[in-house]
């Protein structure tokens, strides 16, 4: 399935496979009600992965549901989680699929840590609007910045 994907702040250097997995993970998260979904190309900054996918959930039950949906979706694409951290508390769960790393956080943690600020040197991967909804401060890179 071909999807329109482009960089917002620069050229995407992540592998096509990583981008495919990131879009699938973002879509699975969105379908379970995750908000503030964002994909960042970190392939120039890190050697261990190409893309970070960030998502927020309202409570620990939703964090778990989002994590399960992402694992199922990526398994169907032939990619299984290599490492999972944080499931016991379900405040911030990290899923390492090698090509991509997914961070599912409680909404308040997602806003507090604003990981996109730490990785702002890499381009954001524009996800299909049915995944992200209308552009938000997270998409434009202005989240957590005082006005």
Keywords:
Ribosomal silencing factor RsfS; 147 residues; Beta Polymerase, domain 2; single chain; globular; cytoplasm; 6 strands; alpha+beta; disordered N terminus; 6-stranded mixed sheet
Give the secondary structure arrangement, pairings included.
Layout: H1 16-31, E1 35-41, E2 51-57, H2 60-76, E3 83-85, E4 92-96, E5 100-106, H3 107-113, H4 115-118, E6 124-125, H5 129-132, H6 137-140
Parallel strand pairs: 2-5
Antiparallel strand pairs: 1-2, 1-6, 3-4, 4-5
Helix pairs in contact: 1-2
GO molecular function, one term: ribosomal large subunit binding
Subcellular location: Cytoplasm
Main location: cytoplasm
- The figure for the number of domains is 1
CATH architecture: 2-Layer Sandwich
Molecular shape? globular
Which percent bin holds the helix content?
25-40%
Structural category is alpha+beta
CATH topology grouping: Beta Polymerase, domain 2
Tell me the fraction of residues in β-strands, as a range.
15-25%
Distance between the termini: 40 Å
Largest sheet: 6 strands, mixed
- The whole-number mean of residue pLDDT values reads 87
Give the C-level CATH assignment.
Alpha Beta
CATH superfamily: Beta Polymerase, domain 2
Annotation, overall tally of beta strands: 6
Q: Write the H/E string, N to C.
A: HEEHEEEHHEHH
- Nearest-angstrom radius of gyration? 14 Å
Unreliable runs:
1-9, 135-140, 142-147
The order of strands across the largest sheet is 3-4-5-2-1-6
Q: Compute the number of helices.
A: 6
GO molecular function, one term: ribosomal large subunit binding
GO biological process, one term: negative regulation of ribosome biogenesis
Subunit structure: Interacts with ribosomal protein uL14 (rplN).
Protein name: Ribosomal silencing factor RsfS
């Amino acid at each position: 399935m071909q999807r329109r994907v482009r960089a917002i702040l620069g050229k995407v250097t992540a592998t096509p496979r990583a981008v495919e997995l990131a879009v699938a993970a973002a879509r699975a998260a969105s379908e379970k009600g995750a908000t503030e979904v964002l994909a960042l190309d970190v392939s120039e900054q890190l050697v261990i992965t190409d893309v970070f996918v960030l998502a927020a959930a309202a409570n620990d039950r939703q964090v778990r549901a989002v994590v399960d949906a992402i694992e199922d979706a990526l398994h169907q694409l032939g990619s299984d989680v290599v490492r999972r951290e944080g499931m016991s508390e379900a405040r911030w769960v990290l899923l390492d699929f090698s090509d991509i790393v997914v961070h599912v956080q409680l909404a308040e943690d997602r806003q507090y840590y604003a990981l996109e600020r730490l990785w702002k040197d890499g381009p954001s991967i524009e996800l299909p609007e049915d995944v992200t909804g209308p552009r938000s401060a997270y998409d434009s890179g202005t989240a957590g910045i005082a006005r």
